[in-house]
Design goal:
Blueprint (H helix, E strand, L loop, with lengths): L1 H7 L3 E4 L12 E4 L4 H28 L4 H34 L3
Antiparallel strand pairs: 1-2
Helix pairs in contact: 2-3
Subcellular location: Bacterial flagellum basal body
Main location: other
Family: Belongs to the FliE family.
Length: about 100
Amino acid sequence: MISAIGSAFPRIQTSPLQGASTAGVGAATTVAGADFGTVLSQVATNAMDAVKSAEATSIQGIRGDASTQAVVESVMAAERTLQTAVALRDKAVSAYLELSRMSI
């Protein structure tokens, strides 16, 4: 799942700071054209693809078309994907609850 999340994020471009000396100063990073909703959508799509792939491999394993190792690897990848999705959901719910407790 980590590779799926990493592939969902857009490329990060670096450019030197404008109007500042670059000696001893790192490059400023900017994300080109990425918004949070798009990134989450891509992560969700990659997660669904991993689960569907695990299901297909499991069915192939039952039929005898896939090796036991391939079935176990795909099921473990799907399990990691599901655990990551649950962790992201828990963090989002926790953040929402924290925001709802703030006084205006």
